[in-house]
Structure formats: C-alpha cells, structure tokens
Specification:
The complex is a heterodimer of chains A (511) and B (222). Chain A has helices at 16-52, 369-372, 436-440, and strands spanning 2-3, 11-12, 65-68, 76-83, 89-98, 108-112, 115-124, 132-137, 140-146, 156-161, 176-185, 205-214, 225-226, 237-239, 244-245, 255-259, 264-277, 280-283, 290-295, 315-324, 333-339, 345-349, 361-367, 374-378, 383-385, 402-404, 414-420, 450-456, 463-469, 471-472, 481-482, 488-497, 504-510. Chain A has 511 residues and is mainly β. Chain B is 13% helix and 44% strand. Chain B has two helices and 13 strands; from the N terminus they run αββββββββββββαβ. Classes of the chains: A mainly beta (511), B mainly beta (222).
Chain lengths: 511, 222
C-alpha cells in the first residue's frame, strides 16, 4: 500500500485490487443494512397483520393460549385455543351470580384434549330469547343452558364485561379466562320513566363466566367482604352487597357509608358523631383541632405468625380514632364491624378502651334526610308520617330537635326504622315538570329507593330526636323553597350511653 | 447476513399468507387512510347461521386521525349522503401512532327486525335498522371491493364505508326544493371530526357552502 520514495516519505498509491476490495466492503455493508432494514420493516408489517388475524401462534406449548376471532355478531364470540399436554384441562361455564370478588363454585365442565380447539359462546341474552347460552367446541354444542324469561323478566339495563378476579391475575393460576359478563337487571317503576344507576364490579349480579382451567383447580368461595385484604379505598370497606365505609377526604369528620348494590356510589348513610363527658361536648364536627379519623387496628394481612383462626371469614372490624391536634383533647376510639351473618348491617360501638374511659354519652346525628326525603318513621309503636304526625309540638319551630318516645321490643332492645314515602327512584322526581328545579336543589339520592333501620341494645339507653324541615335552599344565599310533597325528616339524633360498649346495628335495604 | 436473508424470506412468505387472509395494502403515504376489503372473512361454521350479510375491511389510520362513525337504517338516496332515520354514532379518539384495525359490519334478520352489528378494533355495538330490506335484490356500495385493491383517502374526506338499499322501494321526496329519490336502506359512514357540520348538512340533503365534491368519497357498487 505504501512505497518508499527517494526523499524517504511514504506515499499512498491505490491499485485496482484496492478499489475492488473497497467496493466489495461497501457492497457487503450496504447489503447488510438493506437486509436489516427489510427485516425491521417486514417484522413490523407481520406484527401489524398478526394483531388482526385469528391465527394462533403457539409461543410456549406448555401454556394455555388463545386468540379471539374477529367478532361478526353481537351475541357470538369465538376463540382458537391451545391446550397443553401433560395436565388435564377442562372448559368451565357458569351462569349464576357473579362478581369481581371470585370464581363461581358451581359450574358445568367439559374435558378438553390437548391440542388446538375452536371454542364459541352464543349468549342469546334477551328476555324474548329466554336467556339461552350455548358453548361449542370445534363446532359441536357441549353445553346448553336456558335460564328462561323469568331470570330477568324486564331484561337488563346494563351489561359489563367481567375480568378474572384480582387475585387470579398475573399468572397466579393456570386459568385462561375467555369471557364474563355481569348484568344489571332493568327495574321497571312506571311507564315512560327510565332509571340511570351506577353500581360496581364487587356487587353480586346475575351473569356468566367461561374459562379453561386445570381439572384439579379449585377456588375459595368469593368473600362477602371488600376492602380488607387489598387496599380498595375507592370501593370502600365492608360488605360487597351491603354497607361499606368510605371517606374521600382525610379530614372528613362525618362517617360516610356507600351501598353500590342500591345502584349509587354516592354515600347512602352519613353519620355525624358527638361525644360528651357529662353535659360537655368534648368532640363534634365543630371541633377545629380535628384532623381526621385514623385507623388504628392492625390490618389483617400484617398479622404475620398469628395462630388464631382467621375470623375474617365471618366478620371484620376496624378501629378508628379521632386525630385531634391538641394534647388535652378527647380522642375517642370507635369500632366499625361487619358480620357475614348480618348482610345488610354495619355495627358501630365505642369499645372499652382507655381513650373512651371518660366518655359518658355520645350522639349519632344521621343527616342528609333531605336527599332521601325521609318522611316515614317507626320507633316501635307504629309507622308515623312526618306530614301528619307530631302536630302537638306547640310553638316550637320545625327545625328544633323534637324528642320522640321509643318503645322497646319484646327482648328489651330498640328498633328505629325510617324511609321515604316515595316508592320510585328519587331521580325520577327531577323529571317532574312542575317541581324539577325544587327537587334538583335537594341533591336527591340517585340510587334505588332505600329504607333504613337502627337496632340498639337496651343497655345503651337510647333517646331519639328528629329535626324536620319544610323548606330547602340548594345554595347558601338562595331563596328557600318549599319541599314538594311536604316536610321531611332532615336529621335523626340517637343519643346513647357511652359506657355500654354494645353495637348499634345500622342497616340499609331496598325499600 | 445469511440469517437475516433467510429470516426475511420466511417473513415475506408469512406476510403474503397473512395478506391473503387480511387483504394486501402498500402504505405509500403515511398520512393517508387506507382501506382494503377482506375477500373471505373468517366465520366459524357455528357462527355463520347467525349472520346474513357480512363485510370486513382492514383499515390503516394515520396518527392524529380524529373521526366518528355513524350507522343507521331508514331512507337513503342513490347518490350523496342523504339519510333519514334512527342512527347511532361513536367516536374514535386520535392516536399518536399509526395503526391498523379491522372494521366489521354485519346484517342479520331477527324476527321482523334487521340487526346491524358494527365492530371497530376492540369495541363493538349493534342496533336495529328499522327498515325492511330484500336481501336478494339489495344494492350494496362499499369503498373497497372484496378481492380488489386497497383504496386510499386523505384525512379530509367523508368515507361512506357501506351503503345498502332496496331498489324496489323508490320514493320521491321533496327536500329543500329538490326532488330526491329515496330508498329503504342503511349507511355506515366514517366522518373526520372537523367535517361534522358538513356531514350534518349532507345528511339532510343539503350541500354546505363551499363544499368540494371531492371531500365525499364515492362507493363502488358490488
């Protein structure tokens, strides 16, 4: 490549061989780059096409895999599946009560041989079609279930896709979940009226699940509880189909409970507690140092090494303590309890614990009566209507708390029931042409009609007062307007002995 | 390089096999919309009895394409976008990347109703077309013909993906001083969001001021 020169300096000199070699190198590199670029382009193109195709590419022959066929009709779904060898697998189908909380215990099953299969689900889910479900394997009907029109006589107003339960995602089991649906039945109240509700996936609904599983795979029954084992604060903690405690703001004083089974995720029961030592109120919603209700019990999953039988299968409790930014202030502890044997209830009590030692009395103010239009009250003797009863209260204004006698039941305990006089969802009142604006300013509960009860032990020596209201104003400075239909109970006040340590069981259920 | 070359040959063969199933499409302009009709949509035999008429398209959609789909049955005109009847619509949000999706339309006679099923990507919807169509004599127009080449459109074009009508149901209507022959039928239209107002006018049998005829794609009779 270099040669010596007379003056001793090296000089570059290209021969034909050098030019040919350089050209060959450039050609090879160009070919490599082109092959690389072509490979990237073809791979992208193939991936784009594969994502649309129903072709099943088996990446791991030991794993259950599937690909869905493009849907061509609303009530038919098909999948191409690969079933591994070595273990026995079966196709399982269940039409029953379903939820996000777990897998059904009763299901029909069909063994699946190893290899490829085409599975199709036909869900004729209209009342006129009799809610017929058919499952096909390789074109043959293997499961047929007809639920009949009475399964949901009025049909459904909402159908939501159902995913595998939370605990079974991420490869925790060998399950391949193909399809699931949860129906919210249509509730008919009056012709021409529609109801627009909002539930959640934890509530038990009629529906179905279709999945492939190992033949020996079993699942625990779905827990009736939610929010204790996994942090699901948005959905609240308590009973899936009952009352759940949920707060949105850390400094919220009132205890709010939701009941999505009533087709609303807004609070259905709001309780403002007040605590007394003698006649002095030591904590209430006006206590400016109050900073929030803090959970002080040890969450169940943190109790490592406990040898006790897990009581979570039948009941759960949480302890809340008032966080008050003052060393000398009262900091009561309250226990909220849910029991599977009381599916509609939440129990509230002041446990015997040092922070509660000085308390003598406490009061629970059950507020938001204007949102529910509470008018009917039963405190033991008979049901009374706030529009026609309590007229002998002299000159006292309606808003003054009115004491009411309580009649004990045969076992000495007390039961207080209250509800609205309106049998349809209150949101329908907002469509009333004459009173739409008045109703709208009341922020009516948007779910299905709910009735309430409180069950109180005799040892708590309860005293009851009600606060009535005839007019209402949606805005602070707006003119007050009469509540259409007459006065309502704005608030119930239940005063109790703070030393009894018994539960007050509050319950909410369809009216 | 030898490995790449062999890999590319296999990839090319696989792409050809997939394109035989899903339609062939060369994207020359990444900002355009491409539609190709799938010649033989795959329908499992147990599903086939539940579908009377089926059209399936592979679509390439450019980044940022913001559109909504309108579907409905009632009265349609032979040309133009006139439509009278009940309809449903759904919006597809723009995506930052280009993407391919399958668009499926099927019709099924159920009792005395005609159920239209529409699926795009992962979402599907069905609705009843309140119209009695004689499927034997049905006139069908689509933007791309099964077995035909992919069609491309710019993003400012209203795309009547499907128009189907019964030619034996002609009825002349006076609309905005014009006589329009209408038929019992239905349409599925993809409309860029920015042309929503124009589409509303066209649907009522009016021509929007300054509207270019080229902004409305023409279907091909099948």
């Amino acid at each position: 490549m270099t040669t010596g020169s007379p003056n001793g300096r090296a000089r570059f000199r290209f021969s034909l061989w050098h030019i040919l070699a350089l050209t060959a190198i450039i050609a090879v590199w160009t070919a490599v780059l082109l092959a690389f670029e072509t490979n990237a382009r073809l791979t992208q193109r193939r991936n784009d096409l594969l994502a649309l195709s129903s072709r099943l590419e088996i990446a791991d022959p030991d794993r259950l895999q599937c690909v869905a066929y493009p849907p061509v009709a609303k009530d038919l779904k098909s999948w191409e599946v690969h079933v591994p060898e070595r273990k026995a697998f079966e196709l399982r189908f269940c039409v029953a009560t379903v939820s996000k909380a777990g897998m059904p215990q009763d299901f029909e099953k069909i063994p699946l041989t190893a290899g490829r299969h085409r599975i199709t689900l036909h869900s004729a889910d209209h009342p006129d079609e009799g809610f017929r479900f058919r499952v096909f394997v390789d074109g043959q009907t293997v499961i047929a279930r007809s639920m009949g029109r009475e399964w949901m006589p009025n049909g459904w107003q909402r159908a939501s896709g159902l995913n595998p339960p939370f605990i079974m995602r991420g490869g925790a089991t060998s399950m391949l979940h193909l399809s699931g649906k949860s129906y919210t039945p249509r509730t008919k109240f009056e012709s021409g009226s529609y109801f627009n509700g909002q539930s959640d996936e934890w509530v038990s609904h009629l529906g179905y699940r279709l999945w492939i599983d190992r033949a020996d795979q079993t699942y625990p029954p779905p827990s009736p509880f939610v929010g204790f084992e996994h942090l699901q604060s948005y959905d609240g903690m308590g009973l899936r189909d009952g009352l759940r405690y949920r707060t949105r703001q850390s400094q919220q004083y009132a205890w709010t409970f939701i009941r999505p089974a009533s087709e609303s995720r807004k609070p259905v029961l709001t309780i403002v507690p007040e605590f007394f030592v003698g006649n002095q109120k030591v904590l209430g919603d006006q206590t400016i140092e109050f900073a929030g209700w803090k959970r002080i019990d040890v969450p169940r999953e943190q109790k490592a090494g406990s040898t006790q039988a897990d009581p979570g299968e039948s009941a759960y409790s949480i302890l809340l303590q008032a966080d008050v930014e003052s060393a000398s202030a009262a900091k009561p502890v309250v226990e909220l309890r849910w029991d599977a044997s009381r599916p509609k209830d939440v129990g509230i009590r002041l446990p015997k614990t040092p922070p509660n030692a000085d308390l003598t009395k406490w009061r629970m103010r059950i507020i938001d009566g204007t949102s529910h239009l509470w008018r009917l009250l039963d405190a033991g003797e008979q049901t009374r209507d706030v529009r026609t009863s309590f007229r002998d209260t002299g000159d006292q204004p309606l808003s003054h708390p009115l004491p009411l006698p309580l009649d004990p039941q045969s076992d000495g305990s007390y039961r207080i029931s209250w509800r609205t006089d309106i049998a349809k969802p209150l949101q329908m009142l907002e469509r009333d042409k004459e009173n739409a604006n008045a109703y709208r300013s009341l922020s009516l509960f948007r779910g299905l009609p709910v009735a309430f009860e409180a069950e109180i032990a005799a040892s708590q020596e309860p005293r009851l007062k009600i606060v009535r209201v005839l007019q209402h104003s949606g805005e602070p400075n707006a003119a007050r307007k009469p509540i259409p239909g007459g006065p309502v109970i704005k608030e119930l006040q239940i005063e109790l002995d703070a030393t009894a340590a018994e539960y007050v069981w509050f319950r909410a259920f369809p009216r | 390089m030898i490995i790449w070359t062999r890999d590319n040959r296999e990839l090319r063969e696989d792409v050809l096999r997939l394109e035989a199933e899903l339609g062939r499409m060369e994207i020359d302009d990444v900002d355009a919309i491409y539609i190709v009709a799938i010649e033989e949509p795959i329908v499992p035999p147990e599903v086939a009895p539940h579908v009377d008429l089926l059209w399936q398209f592979r679509c390439y959609l450019p980044p940022g394409y913001d559109f909504q789909t309108m579907r409905g049955g009632g009265r349609v005109s032979e040309s133009g976008m006139y439509f009278q009847g009940g309809f449903g619509s759904s919006r597809s949000s723009p995506r930052p990347e280009p993407y391919h999706e399958l668009l499926t339309i099927s019709l099924r006679r159920q009792d005395d109703r005609l159920v239209c099923f529409y699926s795009f990507g992962g979402s599907s919807v069905s609705g009843t077309w309140n119209v009695d169509l004689d499927s034997e004599n049905l006139v069908v127009e689509t933007l791309a013909s099964p077995g035909g080449p992919a069609q491309s459109f710019d993003q400012s074009t209203i795309l009547p993906i499907l128009k189907a009508y019964d030619p034996n149901t002609a009825e002349v209507k006076e609309i905005n001083g014009q006589s329009i022959t209408t038929y019992a039928g239905g349409i599925v239209v993809v409309c860029p969001r920015k042309l929503d107002p124009e589409f509303e006018q066209l649907r009522r049998g009016r021509t929007p001021d300054g509207f270019q005829a080229s902004s409305l794609a023409e279907g091909q009779r099948q």
